[in-house]
Design goal:
Elements lengths: L2 H6 L11 E5 L3 H13 L2 E6 L4 H10 L2 E4 L7 H6 L3 E4 L8 H8 L3 E4 H7 L14 E5 L4 H14 L4 E5 L5 H5 L7 E5 L2 H7 L12 E4 L7 H4 L2 H9 L8 E5 L3 H9 L7 E5 L8 E5 L2 E4 L11 E5 H6 L5 H16 L4 H9 L9 E6 L2 E5 L6 H10 L4 E4 L9 H7 L5 E4 L4 H11 L5 E3 L5 H15 L5 E4 L12 H17 L18
Parallel strand pairs: 1-2, 1-4, 2-3, 4-5, 6-8, 6-9, 7-8, 9-10, 10-11, 11-12, 16-20, 17-18, 17-20, 18-19
Antiparallel strand pairs: 12-13, 13-14, 15-16
């Protein structure tokens, strides 16, 4: 395959017929890639270690071939297929044997988002243009901000959708026969690593983009914090109108400063402080826009108030910051401030994001199981100072000691769960020795949360919050962060249903804390 032919594949209407494409992985993303390519007339081989039963059944229906088996080395079927392009699902790390083989063989390597960008013109808007893309990434807050921004666009009268890492593949959206006026695309660092490899003449060029924050995460996938940061920074590549960044996170500012953007694109900051010109922020309890108005040096547009956000259950500081970021994206498409406010009035956070699951006997139980890394947990602890903190799980190579040093001394007690308990205990011993620490060593998933709730109820006092903000992944003991959150909520409700007093000292039969 000549580079010239690949460079020419910039439209749904380009000549994709007969193009040999190997698709790595068969989950929701891999199937969307295979389905799109078959519709385009390509020759498709899907290679996967294991296949989802539904997608395995559907592949022959759409005409794609499937190979399943160990992927410790490239299978002979893949090598003999001689792919002209390999499109990998986001789970395939740079060090995976198939990715390394692809690069060493000089075969073009794409992700699903690059393919979606190339064929985005299948359905055009009424004026003949393609729908603009708004990109969202960050260590934390991506999904909430993506949903917020899409809700604001819809409230402003646009047909818009939240897509990408949030769950709906971008390829499904660009093939929707009704089309969209705009897409809000959540991108993981994995997807951005693949986008960073684009070499074609028309690389992805978003209307606006934001990196919400940056903290160590997914280091086992990227190999280092620098590599993770570099992947995230690709969100700003070729931005045309607004590079939105977090003024409270210097790393995101540096990303914007270093980005190669379209001439005329400008930096737009957000934080919870008083905004300067070209920023969004908070003045006297009012969230305001000083970026997207003509007289931004002397004026500001009101978006909503802190009081109203609190009434809507959106008052946590990190949620308010997400709202400002989403508003910046929406305002870059001229969505009116009134539409931003209307969207917020109908918005609800997803489950397991600072979700109050019960209030009983003076104690509030909060499920933030989505806090799967220290940065997210830090935001939760800032929203609920003095909480009984349920922490732990699979740390993914991340050092939790900085979080404990910053937030640990302020909690009233810590209940530690998961496979990686030892480094959490050690961090408390070093940085917060006065805090009572309890370990839950239950081996059975069914027992973990019952024991957690029993211990937490034993130490919580009137007015306390018991906060599940694990700062770790869930896969050591649970099927997902959602499973972890559901089991926590179920255990809380079962205890309340049995009439257990939340701060009955007899609720913890253990001899005492871990130290």
């Amino acid at each position: 395959m000549s580079a010239a032919r690949l460079d020419a594949l910039t439209s749904w209407h380009s000549d994709w017929k007969g193009l040999r494409v190997a698709v790595l992985g068969l989950s929701v993303t891999g199937f969307a890639v295979a389905d799109t390519l078959m519709e385009l007339g390509a020759d498709v081989l899907v290679v996967t270690e294991k296949a989802d039963e539904e997608y395995e059944r559907l592949l022959p229906v759409i005409g794609a071939r499937l190979w399943t088996g160990p992927l410790a080395e490239p299978p002979a079927e893949l090598v003999s297929f001689e792919p002209e392009v390999v499109i990998a699902s986001p789970g395939f790390a740079p060090t995976h044997p198939l990715i390394m083989w692809t690069q060493e063989a000089g075969v073009a390597l794409w992700g699903d988002v690059e393919l979606a960008w190339r064929v985005r013109d299948k359905v055009r808007r009424a004026d003949g243009s393609t729908a603009p893309w708004l990109l969202v990434t960050g260590t934390n807050g991506k999904t909430t901000t993506t949903r917020l921004a899409a809700s604001m666009l819809v409230a402003g009268g646009l047909r818009a959708a939240p897509v990408g890492n949030i769950g709906t593949p971008v390829l499904d959206a660009v093939r929707d026969p009704e089309g969209f006026d705009a897409l809000v695309v959540e991108l993981s660092s994995h997807q951005l690593w693949y986008l960073g490899r684009q070499t074609g003449p028309q690389p992805l060029s978003p209307h606006a983009a934001v990196c919400l924050n940056l903290a160590d995460d997914h280091l086992e996938w990227h190999g280092s914090a620098d590599a993770y940061r570099d992947a995230k920074a690709h969100v700003y590549d070729n931005t045309r109108v607004a590079c939105v960044y977090n003024k409270a996170d210097a790393a995101t500012r540096r990303m914007v400063e270093d980005a190669e953007v379209v001439e005329g694109a400008r930096a737009v900051g957000f934080d919870l402080g008083v905004p300067g010109p070209s920023d969004l922020g908070v003045v006297d309890g009012i969230l305001v826009d000083r970026a997207f108005l003509e007289d931004r040096r002397t004026s500001a547009l009101e978006l909503t108030t802190v009081e109203e956000l609190q009434e809507l259950g959106l008052g946590a500081p990190h949620i308010a910051a997400n709202i400002l970021a989403a508003a910046a994206l929406a305002r870059s498409l001229d969505i009116a401030p009134a539409a931003v406010r209307d969207a917020l009035r109908g918005f609800r956070l997803d489950p397991h994001r600072i979700e109050v699951v019960a209030r009983h006997d003076g104690v509030t139980w909060v499920d933030d199981s989505k806090a799967t890394n220290p940065h997210a947990a830090s935001s939760s602890l800032a929203a609920y100072p003095g909480a009984v903190w349920i922490v732990g799980g699979l740390l993914k190579g991340v050092d939790i000691s900085d979080l404990v040093a910053r937030r640990g001394a302020a909690v009233s007690a810590a209940v530690i769960i998961g496979e990686d308990r030892a480094p959490v205990v050690a961090a408390f011993e070093r940085h917060a020795p006065a805090v009572p620490v309890f370990e839950v060593d239950s081996a059975e998933t069914e027992d973990v949360m019952a024991r957690v709730v029993e211990i937490a109820a034993g130490v919580a006092r009137d007015g306390d919050v018991v906060l599940l903000a694990p700062a770790a992944a869930s896969f050591d003991q649970f099927s997902s962060y959602a499973d972890r959150g559901r089991r926590f909520a179920d255990a809380v409700r079962q205890r309340i249903g049995r009439g257990g007093g939340d701060h009955d000292a007899s609720a913890d039969p253990a001899a005492g804390p871990a130290r």
